[in-house]
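Recall from the previous lesson that a structure prediction takes nothing but the amino acid sequence as input. Here we apply that procedure to EAL domain-containing protein from Massilia hydrophila. The sequence below is the only information supplied.
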Amino acid sequence: AADAAMYHAKTMGKNNVQFHSAELNQIVHAYLMLEANLGRAIRERELVLDYQPKVDLRSGRVVGAEALVRWRHPVEGTIPPDRFIPVAEETGLIVPLGEWVIEETCVALKSMAAHGLDDFVIAVNLSARQLRQRQFPERLGQTLRRYGVDPRRLELEVTESQLMDQPDEARDALAQLKALGVRLSIDDFGTGYSSLSHLQTFPVDYIKIDRSFLGDVGHDGHMVITRAIIALGHNLKLQVIAEGVETREQLAFLRAHDCDQMQGYYFSPALSRDALQDLLARDTRLPD
Ligand code: C2E
Ligand code: MG
Ligand code: MG
Ligand code: MG
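The prediction returns the following tokens.
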């Protein structure tokens, strides 16, 4: 990685970059590569969206999916979002990247509607930086109309910690988005220290329990938190989604405590659009 970072630094004429550690090398490498290559990556279609199914816990049916971006780099191989989203957020490249994610999702929603899947919902992850753009709600409305996508088919996920960064501004932006008719979720809930009074005033539809709370059932106090979050969500008239469900025991616990939806490797990882459509065509259900 150090050699590669040096190589990238040199080819971009940044011989003066100082490297202090392997970790820093990696970070610098990611920055330089991303800044130089993201525009190209979008144009050359190196970015792809995979879709992780979301399952209704009562019917066992797939009701939607979360779009998760991946970078299929020609030299580096597939780069997971944790390695380039933070860089994109720092540099502001998250704005064009996020626009691409929304357009690509509109294309997928249109294709699904054409296959008779007209109540399927796709969630995209939104960065606070996108939310802070004044023009964002208006532009989103235009995009949805341009693609002919019903706003109720699109869900926007924002993490609790990003919302709590500037809660009053976030609330205003969420209200404008809600007025378009899209669905809103608070992602990674439980890790962001929101006060209950704030939570009550965010016009959202879902909270997603962070996967760190779905520990070992029976061996972990975390399940107490999971249970409390489900009850809190329901008291606020919100639906609750559990993410990162990996075991049968976690699933049984969530069902016993009336959680609404699940996502996780126990049912399926994120899939290509074709693989998702196959799964839907076979009407695959969550086992009892
Ligand atoms: P997230 O929104 O909380 O997404 C859930 C992450 O958990 C995904 O990782 C997913 O693949 C992973 N996951 C799902 N089920 C399981 C499971 O059963 N066990 C475990 N251990 N992990 C599971 P991924 O795809 O690497 O995404 C990581 C994060 O990157 C996302 O967290 C999200 O914050 C961010 N991200 C991904 N795509 C986008 C995007 O288009 N825009 C923005 N702004 N952020 C994105
Ligand atoms: Mg998410
Ligand atoms: Mg999450
Ligand atoms: Mg996350």
